[in-house]
């Protein structure tokens, strides 16, 4: 699988914003849903957002839906995740991932909340987001 590349992380003050980017050289990238996960120190990886290949549908973790905006530019093979109103507890490594070929994340017979790491077959190395004053 072609690995993804995240960028845009860094140190930000509480209340601030960041825009993370996820790029791929996979020519089929635009046909797949892409998800974002995060993993804080000592905690499990958490699924927080996803966007369908055509950009028509998006999902957000309920507890973060007022903080996140996901979109994509398929002409450039980039998926963005905007993080707003950041808090120290948002400090984590943020990862993007491409759904597996047969997964079809946005389907009617399964809630998006059931999505897990197993639904994705390509991952980035992660980008660190640190929220601190």
- What is the helix fraction of residues, given as a range? under 10%
Global geometry: globular
Helix vs. strand class: mainly beta
- What are the low-pLDDT stretches, counting only 5+ consecutive residues below 50? none
Number of helices: 0
Number of separate strands: 11
Write a structural description:
The structure is a single chain. The protein is mainly beta and 133 residues long. Helices cover 0% and strands 42% of the residues. The chain is built from no helices and eleven strands. It has strands spanning 5-7, 10-12, 18-23, 34-39, 46-51, 58-60, 68-73, 78-83, 92-99, 120-123, 127-131. Strands 2, 4, 5, 6, 9, 10 and 11 form a seven-stranded mixed beta sheet that branches. It has a four-stranded antiparallel beta sheet with strand order 1-3-8-7, with no helix packed on it. A hairpin with a 6-residue loop joins strand 5 (46-51) and strand 6. It is globular, with a radius of gyration of 14 Å. The N and C termini lie far apart (39 Å).
